[in-house]
Amino acid sequence: MLEISNLVKRYGHNDPVLKGLDLTVDGSSVVSIVGASGAGKSTMLRCINRLVEPTSGSIRLNGHELVNLRGGELRRARRKIGMVFQGFNLIDRLSVMENVLAGRLGYVSFYQAVTRRFPQTDIDRAFHLMDRVGISHYANKRADQLSGGERQRVAVVRALMQEPEILLADEPTASLDPKTSQQIMGLLQSLASEMSLPVLINIHNVTQARMYTDRIVGMRHGQMIFDGAPKDFNQDALDAIYGGIESPEEEGADSDEGHEAREAVA
Q1: Is pLDDT above 80 for 83?
Q2: Which of 12, 140, 172, 242 is most buried, by CB atoms within 10 Å?
């Protein structure tokens, strides 16, 4: 279970990007975070895995506080937080198998990591997961030779190799065409159910949020203003989140990071 309480993130002396957020995610639920660019969606996800340092508040994963961890304790905690990025974050010159096994780097010795001598159990699990998502036949192919959808499947498997307790996905379909986007969202939905894994997805595409997630959280200006089932995500909720303008139905809008970076240097 992920429990976020009174989470605040402020850059310098500017207004907070996150303003006292409270959120609980448990079970095998798939939760989408929607909102206009600059709402704080990506910042929230990055606070969870400490890629961004929270200013204050509490983030607990299965009872363990994450905010105050440092050094080895933080590295061990991050092993349990899988992350899927918009830009895939693969090492292009390495093979699919090598990229997938990177998900085990937090579990092996420095010597094993440098020499890429992973235990056979890790290799077997990698093949199993690659077969599950339909990319096992690409095991020895370089990552830069794959399509966008195939690359994102590699990224998903790499995250699952960590044996995570939660999976975070930051705009996982923004770089993909509509058909492939639906395939990736469907994959995340099915994996959450199969593995009893909570999944938290930052997404611009409201239609896909309605189709593939169990719960929608709407954010505006660093605050949560909607939290409910997709069937309850009506026009009033859209107006509240997007300020009365037509909500984005296609991926590709600017990410929160650009907005927040501008706030940081303003």
Answers
A1: yes
A2: 172
